[in-house]
């Protein structure tokens, strides 16, 4: 019984399936297949069948999506370390990087006291000065109210919401709603992906994402909140993010430690190109 997917096994069977289809393998890939083939040949029959079937569906989808694949290169000696990937597929239209590591998708959280740096506002600008002043004021008031406790877990949800979450949400909402020129910087922090296909693997299915898919240029965004500890940010290209504030430390110290956990709510609508069952 397969409980979790071993991407090392799956990658081996993906390479072999492409080889069976007549796709050329680079020298590094050929050596890899030769060196590890004995290990995989000794796998249990049930595992072989499972990974063979899984790999076949992945290869089928990639072959249909990428026109005229000529060569497969295993990412042993990467020529571009900035793009996390497992293999490269070279076709008539160029090189496509493929990753089996869905957890490497670059979606970042926001630390409130770093917002000005994220938006690339210099320290001496009026907006940065005002934001820093208000942030420190909220921080100091909150600390005075909660310092009687030594851990955040000892605070009630009501106290965290009224003394920390809501004031910070209001500050960020008020700051960003007045300054929209930072749209591109804000988006690139929340989500920074391009030039690769990523597979999200489940036990009996998978989803293909193409982060090279074209969308409108980032020019503007809207921000609001319907929950005391949650911000919603939508960009003109259709991307929609939910940012939920939470404490980011165990012990309460003079500097209040919180972060906004980022969820890309419609990533499937924006970048999923196909899904398939096994």
Overall shape: it is: elongated
- Report the C-alpha radius of gyration, rounded: 24 Å
What is the SS-derived class?
Answer: alpha+beta
Biggest β-sheet, characterized? Answer: 7 strands, mixed
Write up this protein:
By secondary structure, this protein is α+β, with helices and mostly antiparallel strands. It folds into two domains: 94 residues; 138 residues, no CATH class. The strands form two sheets. Strands 1-2-3-4-5-6-11 form a seven-stranded mixed sheet. A four-stranded antiparallel sheet has the order 7-8-9-10, covered by helices on one side. The relative contact order is 0.13.
Characterize this entry briefly.
The protein is an alpha+beta fold and 278 residues long. The protein has helices spanning 7-20, 27-41, 45-65, 115-118, 126-146, 157-178, 183-190, 267-271; strands spanning 24-25, 69-74, 87-91, 94-99, 196-201, 205-210, 221-227, 230-235, 240-247, 258-264, 272-277.
């Amino acid at each position: 019984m397969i409980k979790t997917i071993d991407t090392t096994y799956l990658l081996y069977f993906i390479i072999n399936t492409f080889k069976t289809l007549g796709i050329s393998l680079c020298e590094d890939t050929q050596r890899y297949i030769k060196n590890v083939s004995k290990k995989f040949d000794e796998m249990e029959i049930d595992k072989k069948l499972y990974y063979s079937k899984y790999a076949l569906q992945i290869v089928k989808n990639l072959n249909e999506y990428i026109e005229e694949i000529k060569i497969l290169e295993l990412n042993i000696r990467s020529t571009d370390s900035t793009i996390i990937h497992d293999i490269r597929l070279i076709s008539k239209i160029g090189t496509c990087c493929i990753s089996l590591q869905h957890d490497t998708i670059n979606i970042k959280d926001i630390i409130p006291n770093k917002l000005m740096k994220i938006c690339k506002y210099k320290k001496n600008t009026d907006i940065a000065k005002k934001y820093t002043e208000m942030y420190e004021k909220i921080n100091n008031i909150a600390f005075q109210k909660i310092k009687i406790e030594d851990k955040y877990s000892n605070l009630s949800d009501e106290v965290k919401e009224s003394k920390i979450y809501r004031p910070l949400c209001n500050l960020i909402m008020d700051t960003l709603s007045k300054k929209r020129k930072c749209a591109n910087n804000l988006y690139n922090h929340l989500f920074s992906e391009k030039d690769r296909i990523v597979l999200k693997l489940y036990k009996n299915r998978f989803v293909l994402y193409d982060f090279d898919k074209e969308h409108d240029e980032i020019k503007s965004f809207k921000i609001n909140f319907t929950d005391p500890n949650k911000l919603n940010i939508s960009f003109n290209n259709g991307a929609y993010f939910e940012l939920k504030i939470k404490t980011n430390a165990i012990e309460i110290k003079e500097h209040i430690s919180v972060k906004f956990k980022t969820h890309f709510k419609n990533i499937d609508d924006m970048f999923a190109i196909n899904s398939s069952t096994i």
